[in-house]
Amino acid sequence: MKFILRRLLLAVPVVWGVATIVFFFVHLLPGDPAEIVLGENASRASLEKLRADHHLDEPLSVQYGLFLSDLFKGNLRESIVQRKAVTALIGERWLYTAELALLALLIALAISLPLGTIAAVRAGRLIDQAAMAFSLLGICLPAFCLAPLLIIAFSVKLGWLPVSGAEAPGSIFLPALTLGVSLSAILARMVRAQMLEILSRDYLRTARAKGLAPWQVVIRHALRNALLPVVTLVGIQMGVLLSGAIITEKIFAWPGLGSLLLQGIFQRDYPVVQGCVLVISLTYVLVNLGTDLLYGILDPRIRVEGEKK
Amino acid sequence: MAALLVLFCFLAGACGGSHEKPPFLRAALESYPGNLDPRLATDAYAYDVIETLYNGLVKPSAAGGYEPDLAEKIEPETPLRWRILLREGVRFHHGKILSASDVLCTYRSILDPGLGSPAKASFEALEGIEILGERELRLRLVRPAAAFFETITLPILPCDLLRSGHDFSEKPVGTGFLRFVEARSPLYIQLERFSEYFRGETSIPGVRFVHIPDATTRVLSLLRGEIDLSVNNVSPAYVERLGREKHLRIATSPGTNFTYVGFNLRDPVLKGIRVRRAIAHAIHREEIVKYRLKGLADLADALFPAGHWAHASGVRRYEYDPALAEKLLDEAGYPRPADGGPRLSLSYKTSQNKDRLRMIEVIRRRLEEVGVHIEIQPYEFGTFLEQIKRGDFQLYSLTWVGVSDPDFYYDVFHSAQIPENGGRNRGRYSNPRADTLLEAGRAELDPARRATIYREFQGLLAEDLPCLPLWHERNVAVMGERVEGFELNPLASYRALEKNRLREEPR
Q1: Are A238 and A285 in contact (CB under 8 A)?
Q2: Do A45 and B120 touch (CB under 8 A)?
Q3: Residues A77, A38, B424, CA angle at the centre, nearest 5°?
């Protein structure tokens, strides 16, 4: 518990640092939000009013102070373009992002764990080569190539799944598959490498000598120990997925956090950009914390050593 | 293993759903509208939806003028007094009957500084409004303003809801042929038929504007039949391919979107007319229209296309003539250097739009042939526009969209309108004769006399060449088999859906 609290407290300077960097970078972007929102024909009075409403007419240092004080109160302000609370906008989008990230991860694990394990157990054989060829393809094929191919196959030709959107049943599957395939490709290679190293360890020979069935040796003793570095990678990738997969979201018109952030940048909607980046940095902190806790479950030695300290 | 099973069940469930056609028409939107309150909307996508939900006193006509919409009659008693009679029995979506006080309330709310409406500037010519009766009112202007017709295309909102502080961006209420059902940002906006629409009920049960930001996905959605209608948001490269599909039909019509090359007239090289004319003669516009735009554009000599009342025929045209371009460059003091290098180098700024970049690449090659080296500089749109406004450019390309009145020329070419003064004269063009004509044009109410003034102005513009007209993009609608009777007008307006029909069964 102390560990979790300490990590959460450490997150405060991280989030503050990210908030500060984003605040200044966003304000460095060329383009006046008032002109972008109201258009070039807007009257000077309207432009000045909008700037005053969002404190855009104040010196940057004053704006920063106001931003921090609002942030301290948990107020992410109102979107300049959509005139809605940024917390509400992020709340709507984050659920979609989380749903997509979880399914993508599930797909990635469902593909990579058996694939990596079988490839390691049958190292050098045809199945290993095929698995690694798939993995290489998955790594090389970017989302903007894979996604249209999946749409053509599953939506246009087979007619099984909708092309885009988030309303029709099954609409999450293609974006999740796009993200999941590339993630599974990376994970499968890592699982294979870890399994190859562990399968040659002495304790596995002992396990086999004691008469355990081969699958029990692989699943219960080898795979569990091979998972630690995989969990680290999953943690990092989960952070990436939860920040919104901008390209995949755009292709499938998936209303996640990534597309909100991108739209915010294009429209110079400062509160939206700041809010999104803050949530993303917080997500990274929490996912890293979750990963560290998972280490303890997978390998009790880490927990014991941590407790000794 | 469990995960695999979950996955399998999910896939099986998802595949079980049949691809049924919903009882409404689905139209693709490239970007999700920013705000559906017409007083606050600024983007073209919001206007696409707004024009189906609301009506103004007048609406743009296909010939470029205006025709009565909620107004039955508009009589300019004097150039400064406009008497307006409203149609009888027009209902808002919540049941209220339209009256003169709704017009007054709408215009007052726009002028209210507390609202911060971007439309406020267009009402600068309005001095006051007098209510003359239940359906009659008078607009008093501070100066004669022909372009005020464009101002009164602005939708009218119901006074009772305006007074109660109703949020029109969340729940729009107008008099249009469709009424608002729900909006799921950023997925779709659902509208349904308004049975008490004053021109008679439309035969479409409803329309769903579906947001599909990716160009390839829009094409695939049309192929799959998930979208029934796509207007001006399919790249020309795909149009021919889509036309070969049995279940899709393509309609095209002359359009008003005007693409041009802008020159910075304060640039030491480009301030010379010979250099600008040389560039104009070196660009092979026909080639770009034929091969890059697949014929889906018409060459332009000025902002308004043929068919528009302010169209100027017979103005100076710059045909592709590389020999003449080279001669003009020699005369301008830029001979070909003996070492074979370029005569001069220019930067060409643009957005990162792929179609635009391909087009500029062709222009670059042609200009290189006459010895003008071009460095293409693509920027993110906000950054690009900021640089153009600051005057930090030599050449750039943009498209003017939805311009219907020539008073627009005042905003972009009058010497008082340079960006430093808050205007849009980005090329910093200045010609006293042009200023005089533009001032006369906006004060003249007689359409024939206005047309003469703007014809002279456009002739002058073609001589001075502050920007090179390239082409008018044609409107392109891709329609599914259920869409019947969609008339693609020059404005490519979704108002055409008013007369549409939706087939129950595929042909």
Answers
A1: no
A2: yes
A3: 145
